Amino acid sequence: MVTLFAPELAFYIDGNNYDCIYDADGIKRVKYAYDKGHQVASHTWSHAHLPTLTWDQQHDEFWRVEPFGEYNDLVRQVADARGQTLVNWDFDSGDSVGKTAAQSMALYDQIAQSHPSTLLALNHEVYQQTAQVVLPHAIAKLQAAGYKLVTLAECLNLPAYKFVGQPEVNNGTWTC
Description:
This protein is mainly α. Helices cover 38% and strands 7% of the residues.
C-alpha cells in the first residue's frame, strides 16, 4: 500500500484476479486503504472482458465488483440499470504491460510536460516498483507541474460511495 505524502488515491480492486479479495490479506488491504482515506472502487470480479459477456454475465460481474477499462453499449446499459458510473483513465503508466519503473516515470515526465487540463492515471499498486518508486515520482512531478491531486469522486463531483456499512466478519462462507 502507498504510505507516503500522497493525497487520497482511488484503489480499484478486483475480486479474484491477482488473489482473492476474501483472503485475510485481501481484507486487510481493502480496510487499510479505506481507513487511510483512499477511495476503494472495483475493477470487475475476475477482470473479464465485459464486451464479450451477456447481460446476465455482466450483471454478475457488476454485482460482485464494477468493470475495468473495456465497455460497449451493453456494459453502459448494465451500469446504468445498477445506478453505477463507468470511469476510464486517460493516461496509462504501462506497468501492467511490462514497463519498467524508469519507463513509467518517463511517461509521467512527458505527460506533466505536455500538461493536459485534466489527467486520470492508471497504475497498479500490486507491482512493488509502481507503489514504491513510480507513484512518489508521479505525485511529485504532477504537483510540481501545478496539478491539484483530488479523489475520483471530487473530480467527477459525485459522492465517493453509494453507501458505507460496517465491515462484516468473514464467517467462512466468503469464497472466490
